[in-house]
Design a protein that fits this description.
Largest sheet: 5 strands, antiparallel
CATH topology of the largest domain: Beta-Lactamase
Structural class: alpha+beta
Radius of gyration: 21 Å
Helix content: 40-55%
CATH architecture of the largest domain: 2-Layer Sandwich
Shape: globular
Amino acid sequence: MGIDRAGLAGFLRGRRESLQPEDVGLPRGARRRATGLRREEVAVLCHMSTDYYSRLERERGPHPSEQMVASIAQGLHLSLAERDHLFRLAGHQPPLRGTSSGHVSPGLLRILDRLGDTPAEIVTELGETLRQTPLGVALTGDTTGFTGPARSKGYRWFTDPASRERHAPEDHAFLSRMYASGLRGIVARRGPGSRAAQLADLLLERSPEFRALWERHEVGVHPGEVKRYQHPEVGRLELNCQTLVDPHQAHHLMVYTAVPGTESHDALAVLAVIGAQPLATGDAVPAVRR
């Protein structure tokens, strides 16, 4: 399958010009004249240089890799049908659809883009973080950069002690049961050859705690509506978690809020100010009621 440079260029221009800054979580600006997004804005969204993206629209440049095409599809907020079309224009077979897909639907992205002042994340059914808001990164750390089985929060929970540091110690035992129970349910739904089954096999090999819980055959251990975090800068937070599910790809948009007037609400406001960067030694943390 060869690349259709003219078709690719035309499709990219059409999609870029059909999007407005507010559609993708960007500010419009006071003197904007461009129809749709600018090329440099799309390049930022797609994590590539403006020159690289511009050459694609001008029917020049290298043959984009599958990874690059996937990044463009996500940056332009393409639907699955549009993503598949883009892959074919670029000379690649489209990725498989379903629960293993990392392509986030435009609908979930539009919601996430409007949650800039709220901790939120989009995760797969295996707990692999696909997107986070800036305040989501400040709350839990950047969890999008892991590779291999470590992309799964459940896997990290049983294999990396550091993954437990931001959770209240009294919740650790319950969370271990919840992750083991949840993975067992996914394995039953997806079957013995699934990614979930492979993840379970790895954990059975590498974690005695997981093996002991797996042998209980416990299912139906669901998370509570309130999640407790122990943040290194602002301390304890009790946050309500609301979840929106994309049924076609089993992606979950998880949004965390605090009850107004509570200590957690004040702490979350402080976290929004200091951001994801740790405070320098000697810096004072704004007062939070305790």
